[in-house]
Amino acid sequence: MNRPDAPELLAAARATLMNDVLPSVPEHLRYEVRMIASAMGIAAREAAAQSQAKVDLFSEVLPESMAAGSASPDDARRTIAAAIRAGVFDTPGAQQQKLRAVLAKTVYNALMISNPKAAQSSEGQRS
Amino acid sequence: MNMSQNSLASHQDIPEALQGWQRSLERYFSNVVLNGKATINAMKRLSGGAIQENWLLSVLVQGGDFAGENKWVLRTDSSSVVQVSMSRGHEYAVLKAVYEAGVQVPAPLWLCNDLDVIGREFFVMQAVSGTAAGHRLVKDDSLVPDRSALCRELGRNLAKLHAIRPPRESLAFLPAPETDPARSIIEQYLDFLDELPQAFPVIEWGLRWLHTNKPNPIESCLIHRDFRTGNFMVDRGSVSGILDWEFTAWGDWREDIGWLTAKCWRFGNNANVAGGIGGVSDLMAGYSDICPREISSEELRYWQVMAHVRWAIIAVQQAERHLSGQQHSLELALTGRLVPELEHNILTLIGDY
Fold this sequence. Notes:
The structure holds 2 protein chains of 2 kinds. Chain A is 68% helix and 0% strand. Chain A has helices spanning 6-21, 30-50, 58-61, 73-85, 94-114, 116-126. By secondary structure, chain A is mainly α. Chain B is an alpha+beta fold. Chain B contains 12 helices and 9 strands. Chain B has helices at residues 19-32, 88-100, 115-118, 134-137, 147-162, 181-194, 201-212, 253-261, 280-290, 297-323, 330-336, 339-349, and strands at residues 37-45, 52-62, 68-77, 108-112, 122-126, 221-223, 232-235, 238-242, 249-251. In chain B, the strands form 3 sheets. A 5-stranded antiparallel β-sheet of chain B has the order 1-2-3-5-4, sandwiched between helices. The longest helix of chain B is centred in the C-terminal third of the chain and has 27 residues, at 297-323. Mean pLDDT of chain B is 91; it is low at 1-11. The A-B interface holds A 32, 35-36, 38-39, 42, 58, 74, 77-78, 80-82, 84-85, 87, 89-90, 99-100, 103-104, 106-108, 110-111, 113-115, 118-119, 122, 125-126 and B 190, 193, 198-202, 204-205, 207-208, 212, 330-331, 333-334, 337-341, 343-344, 347-348, 352-353.
């Protein structure tokens, strides 16, 4: 196993960039440095999340359309999107409830990586 | 576009690459100002705008109507233009139309189609002072001492814009008004999604909600389609100019209200629903000074969902431009990572979160 791992390396690099490099960067390049730091933060959180087990959330919603285990995450997203557009979930009921729960969960997972602050503030709203 | 840095050096301050522009522009200005002789003292590119370039010019005119020191902004397509929303000639026509309708915009001065001057079409407008920086305007009370007054002013500007109704001969280049703008927009966004290599179930669900909850169409008017904090200049607490008219179209006036009040354009100041600046009631009170109208909370919600769906689609398109190799850019790549937050806003608004 590589140590420090990818998130730890990125965190160290990001700290150097923000604490040591940024103060000496001319005004017209500071936005660029902040974008670099932001990209490094996102990449670090994503690298950390990938070690967690990936749950194929979408296959729960339309099990009959997706042979268990065979659909790639991309295929599953496409199948769900097409079903939404076809109106499969228009009627309130158990299937719509399931879709809504899965969409919310997917967004929450993505938000925890791209913008944890926004994800945490929504946690508060839901409780 | 940000024209906040408008203090020019008094000495000769012209980037070397533009020395060629300088002479031909001086000839051009000397010609259009009538009975004057123009000398460009400074020329500076303004920040913002990957598609358009905005140059702040300091031009000394001897004689004629413009005698004295003038601050003008020259707007032209960027040399590496990939996606053109509207030609500069068309944007100039829009600017003139809204200026004549009393909307606060930088006064349009001249349009130049002669490619011999700088090699591209451009127009020139009066420079306006102040700042457009959204993150400052929503937080810094010294920039906006009276938030409700600024909101009313924004509302009055929107109402004057929305008073422009089709048909308009000078705006004949705009796509004809749709009988049901919301339906046309939804169809267009579905087409955009189909062009992407991945599917976006949350955006799709948002569009489905917009489809099933679509309001009855109302009479079309001219709308800005990017009227938000960051696109208007504020000087000493009041509007000094509304910018960036390249997305203007015939449409539903409530779309502009939804865009301005959507959470994604409040720059973190979420309590101030109208663009992080202030309240919707002040915005609509100003609006009603010109044109008595109300927007219900249901209508507001509908058009805010529309705003987030639109911004989410633009964000995935921008990320795709980077990923496809069409335009390598860290900014475009990071824009793709805004999508989860926009999706979260969509789900929250439609009650799924």
